[in-house]
Design goal:
Elements (H helix, E strand, L loop, with lengths): L1 H12 L4 H7 L16 H15 L15 H8 L6 H15 L3 E8 L2 E8 L7 H18 L6 E5 L11 H4 L3 E3 L5 E6 L11 H9 L3 H4 L8 H15 L6 H7 L4 H10 L4 H19 L4 H7 L5 H12 L3 H11 L2
Parallel strand pairs: 3-4
Antiparallel strand pairs: 1-2, 2-5, 3-5
Protein name: AraC family transcriptional regulator
GO molecular function: DNA-binding transcription factor activity; transcription cis-regulatory region binding
Keywords: DNA-binding, Transcription, Transcription regulation
């Protein structure tokens, strides 16, 4: 829940109660106190939108002055007409400096790498979540400017390694360095001189996808983990039965052993991907209906309702009954 808590920091600093914002996103406020609780991507995106509209601030109240709605579009449009990616990124850095007073953004080179560096101004102490948030926004914007993908070599953070560091791999898929003088992401400098080809139609499409394109972006490349998740969803749409490892391996034309090795190389496993999808489906079903736990357990491929309830508590920190009861009470 650290991401949800971080998103709410700006609103709380302005004296706003978080409960209405959480309810608007379909998140039970009580879950804020549960470290192991999880929310779906859809709920996370809904919370971002609720905060952005309530505060009229695309920086969610995390900066000393708001970036009013339209700020991201302004940054994006500032890059139009650039000759190459380097010129586009430098325009974006300059534009962001104009929009706020708390951090400085700069495109730099370090040997074979180029980096977009975020440095706090003297006398300011931006919240840790602001570093995470700005890094994600700038990276996804840079990826869009680069044509849709930009492989990062490493991410750097201007704070010490947090307790929830294991969650970072899902959001920042590269080498991580903490305790740095600045927050930054680094990529192959050979990308900088490539021609910039984004146009007005592309800008409109990118802005229309905000904030989902930043919070839950499509994968830059289809790794085996993404292919497995896609196959799981495909099987579930075509058949009520949950597929097994052998079924997915056959669909991908590899052996089960090869599939497991490739998933391990991606930093995940068959069970982890299966549980991730089951968790998201369970949360969505509990939030929208009164399905019996036995039925839900069967839909999610569990041997019994008790097995499902144990797994759900492991995933979210709350039993499914208590989780649904809180949702229903909050919804009135």
């Amino acid at each position: 829940m650290h991401l949800v808590r971080g998103m709410l920091e700006g609103a709380r600093a302005q004296g706003r109660a978080p409960e209405p914002l959480l309810r608007a996103a379909g998140i039970a406020p009580e879950l804020l106190a549960v470290d192991s609780a999880r929310v779906t991507s859809a709920q996370y995106i809904a919370l971002f939108r609720a905060l952005m509209m309530a505060l009229n601030d695309e920086a969610l109240g995390l900066l000393s002055r708001p970036i009013k709605r339209g700020g991201l579009e302004l940054l994006t449009r500032s890059a139009l007409g650039s000759r190459d990616l380097e010129a586009a990124l430098r325009r974006v850095c300059l534009g962001f400096t104009v929009l706020q007073d708390d951090v400085h953004t700069e495109l730099v080179r370090e040997g074979a790498l180029a980096g977009l560096v975020i440095t706090a101004h003297p006398g300011t102490r931006p919240a840790r979540f602001l570093h995470e948030f700005l890094l994600r926004v700038m990276w996804r914007l840079a990826a869009w400017l680069a044509g849709g993908s930009l492989k990062v070599q490493r991410f750097e953070f201007a704070f010490e390694q947090p307790a929830h560091v294991n969650d970072y791999g899902l959001v920042f898929p590269a080498s991580l360095r903490f305790g740095q003088a600045h927050t930054a992401f680094w990529f192959d400098a050979k990308r900088l001189p490539r021609a910039f080809s984004r146009d007005e139609a592309a800008v409109r499409s990118f802005i229309a996808s905000w904030p989902a394109s930043v919070i839950a972006p499509k994968r830059e490349r289809e790794g085996m983990d993404a292919r497995v998740r896609a196959q799981l969803q495909h099987h579930l749409q075509a058949d009520e039965r949950w597929p097994g490892l052998a079924d997915i391996a056959q669909s991908l034309h590899v052996s089960a052993a090869t599939l497991q090795r490739q998933l391990a190389a991606s930093g995940t496993s068959w069970q982890a991907l299966k549980d991730e999808l089951r968790r998201d489906m369970a949360i969505a079903r509990l939030a929208t209906g009164l399905t019996h736990f036995a039925t839900l357990a069967d839909e999610l491929g569990f041997s019994s309702a008790a097995a499902f309830q144990r797994a759900f508590k492991t995933w979210t920190g709350s039993p499914p009954g208590a989780y649904r009861a809180r949702l229903l009470s909050e919804q009135g």
